[in-house]
C-alpha cells in the first residue's frame, strides 16, 4: 500500500531531518510510513502509491473550501503570471487587510506576515513594547509556533515557571514565560498576583486545537478579559487555527470576547504561506514604521498568497458557514451514536468545522486530561482509518477539520468507516 512512500521516505531522510519539513508529518507518534502526497482535490488527497483518502487534515486547516478550489486556482494562476513578489506595496494587500478588519471584531489594523509563528512571536513583541513589561502567560497544550518564548514546558508545578522544552532555548528566555492551565482561571489569577506589574500579555488559543479540539468552558474567556483589563495586560487570541474557521469573525465573534491583539494564519492564506497579526489602532501603531516595535519580511503580503487568501475569504459567505456547521453537526451526531451503540470509552468535542475524537471516556477540559487518553489505541485507530482511506491528523493532540467539499455522502462513508475501525481496535 505504501511502497513508493517508503522508498521516498528513505531518500528524504538522507537530506532532510526526519525526511520532512515539519516534525508532525513524520508520523513519529502514530508510527508507520507517512504517505507522500502527489495531489489533492476537494475533500481528497492522493498519495504517490495511488491511494486516495478523505482528508480531515486539510493542510492543518487552510483548505476550508476544499483542495484546489477552481476559483482559487484560477485567481492564483493569473496573479503569479503578473509576478510572484515585488517587495513593494500593492492594492491587494489593502484589500486583504480590509477583509480581515471587516470580519474580526477589534482587528482594526493588520500586518501580514508569512507564518503563524511569525505572527505570534511578533504579537508578544508588540505587547512587550507597548507595556514595557517582559513576562507572558501561555497555557499548557496551546501551541503558538516554534519561536523561543513558546517552546516552554511546565517547570516545577509549584512555581509554574517555564523551563525550555527544546535545546537552544535559553533559561533567560524561559524565565519570562509563565504557564497556566486552560479553563482554569484561578491558575491565571495566581500568576498575575505573583507577578504584579510584570506581565505584558496573556496569549491563548481561544479554542485549543493543538491538544485536540478543546472549547473554552463557561465564562473562561470573559474572566480572562476582565483579568487583563484589571491589570493592564494585553490579551492575545491566537486564531491561527480558529480564525475564519469557526465562523466569519472567528472565536472572538463566536464567544463575544474581543482580544487586544489577534494572530491569524492557515485559512487566511488559502494554503499559501500567509499569516497576520492585528489589533487596535492604539496597539498596532507601535509597529514599525509607525512606531519603534520592529518586524519585517521579504515575502510578507506577496501578491500570490494574498490572492489565495482573498479568494478563500470571499468564498466563505454566511451560507457557507451554515453549511459547515451542519456538516460538523452531522459528523458529530453520527460519531456520538457510534460511541453510544458500541459503549466505547471515547468522547468528542466539536466547534463548527473543527473537531476531535478523544480516546478517554470523559470529554477533556485541559491538556492534562488529553494526556490521559489511550494513545496506543488512538494510534491503532488512526492506522485502521488510514488503511480504509480516511486521513486523520497523525496525533491525538491535533484537531480534525471539515471543508465545504465534505458533503453528506462523504460524511456517511466516514461514519461507516469509523464504526468498522472502532470494532477492529476494541
Ligand atoms: P505556523 O508557523 O506553523 O504557520 O503556525 C504556528 C501555529 C500558531 N498557532 C496555532 C494555533 C497553530 O495551530 C499553529 C500551527 N499549527 C500546527 C498544527 N497543529 C501546524 C502543523 C505543523 O506544525 O506542521
Structural class call reads alpha/beta
CATH class of the largest domain: Alpha Beta
CATH superfamily of the largest domain: Type I PLP-dependent aspartate aminotransferase-like (Major domain)
State the helix count. 14
General description of the model:
- With 426 residues, the chain is an alpha/beta fold.
- The chain folds into two domains: 3-64 and 317-425, Aspartate Aminotransferase, domain 1, CATH 3.90.1150; 70-315, Type I PLP-dependent aspartate aminotransferase-like (Major domain) (Aspartate Aminotransferase, domain 2), CATH 3.40.640.
- Helix 11 packs parallel to helix 14 (408-425).
- The model has no long low-confidence stretch (mean pLDDT 96).
- It has a seven-stranded mixed β-sheet, with helices on both faces. The protein has a four-stranded mixed β-sheet with strand order 1-2-3-15. Strands 13-14-16 form a three-stranded antiparallel β-sheet, covered by helices on one side.
- Strand 6 (152-154) and strand 7 form a beta hairpin.
- It has helices spanning 3-15, 70-81, 91-103, 116-131, 171-174, 185-194, 220-231, 250-255, 281-284, 303-315, 318-342, 367-371, 375-387, 408-425, and strands at 37-41, 44-47, 52-55, 109-113, 135-139, 152-154, 162-164, 177-180, 199-204, 234-239, 261-264, 275-279, 347-351, 354-358, 390-391, 400-401.
- Bound molecules: ligand KE4.
- Ligand KE4 is lined by residues 22, 24, 60, 115-117, 120, 143-145, 205, 209-210, 238, 240-241, 265, 275, 398.
- The site of ligand KE4 has 19 residues, from helix 4.
Amino acid at each position: 500500500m505504501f511502497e513508493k512512500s517508503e522508498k521516498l521516505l528513505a531518500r528524504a531522510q538522507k537530506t532532510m531531518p526526519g525526511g520532512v519539513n515539519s516534525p508532525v508529518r513524520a508520523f513519529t507518534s502514530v508510527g508507520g510510513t507517512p504517505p507522500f502526497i502527489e495531489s489533492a482535490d476537494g475533500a481528497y488527497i492522493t498519495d504517490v502509491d495511488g491511494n486516495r483518502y478523505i482528508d480531515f487534515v486539510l493542510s492543518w486547516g487552510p483548505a476550508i473550501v476544499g483542495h484546489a478550489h477552481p476559483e482559487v486556482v484560477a485567481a492564483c494562476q493569473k496573479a503569479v503570471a503578473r509576478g510572484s513578489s515585488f517587495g513593494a506595496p500593492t492594492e491587494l494587500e489593502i484589500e486583504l487587510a480590509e477583509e480581515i478588519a471587516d470580519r474580526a471584531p477589534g482587528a482594526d489594523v493588520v500586518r501580514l506576515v508569512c507564518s503563524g509563528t511569525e505572527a505570534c512571536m511578533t504579537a508578544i513583541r508588540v505587547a512587550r513594547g507597548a507595556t514595557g513589561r517582559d513576562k507572558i502567560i501561555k497555557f499548557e497544550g496551546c501551541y503558538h509556533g516554534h519561536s523561543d518564548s513558546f517552546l516552554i514546558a511546565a517547570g516545577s508545578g509549584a512555581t509554574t515557571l517555564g523551563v525550555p522544552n527544546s535545546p537552544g532555548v535559553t533559561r533567560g528566555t524561559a524565565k519570562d514565560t509563565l504557564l497556566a492551565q486552560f479553563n482554569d482561571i484561578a491558575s491565571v489569577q495566581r500568576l498575575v498576583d505573583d507577578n504584579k506589574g510584570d506581565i505584558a500579555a496573556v496569549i491563548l488559543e481561544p479554542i485549543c486545537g493543538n491538544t485536540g479540539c478543546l472549547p473554552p468552558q463557561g465564562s473562561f474567556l470573559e474572566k480572562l478579559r476582565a483579568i487583563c483589563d484589571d491589570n493592564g495586560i494585553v490579551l492575545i487570541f491566537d486564531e491561527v487555527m480558529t480564525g475564519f474557521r469557526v465562523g466569519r469573525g472567528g472565536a472572538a465573534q463566536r464567544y463575544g470576547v474581543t482580544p487586544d491583539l489577534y494572530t491569524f494564519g492557515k485559512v487566511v492564506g488559502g494554503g499559501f504561506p500567509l499569516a497576520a497579526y492585528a489589533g487596535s489602532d492604539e496597539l498596532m501603531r507601535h509597529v514599525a514604521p509607525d512606531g519603534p516595535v520592529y518586524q519585517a519580511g521579504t515575502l510578507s503580503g506577496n501578491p500570490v498568497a494574498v490572492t489565495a487568501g482573498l479568494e478563500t475569504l470571499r468564498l466563505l459567505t454566511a451560507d457557507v458557514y451554515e453549511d459547515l456547521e451542519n456538516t460538523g453537526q452531522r459528523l458529530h451526531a453520527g460519531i456520538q451514536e457510534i460511541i453510544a451503540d458500541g459503549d466505547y470509552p471515547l468522547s468528542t468535542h466539536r466547534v463548527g468545522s473543527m473537531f476531535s475524537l478523544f480516546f478517554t471516556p470523559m470529554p477533556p477540559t485541559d491538556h492534562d486530561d488529553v494526556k490521559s487518553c489511550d494513545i496506543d489505541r488512538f494510534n491503532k485507530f488512526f492506522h485502521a482509518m488510514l488503511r480504509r482511506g480516511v486521513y486523520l491528523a497523525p496525533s491525538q493532540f491535533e484537531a480534525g477539520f471539515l471543508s465545504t467539499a465534505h458533503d453528506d455522502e462523504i460524511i456517511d462513508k466516514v461514519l461507516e468507516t469509523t464504526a468498522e475501525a472502532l470494532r477492529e481496535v476494541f
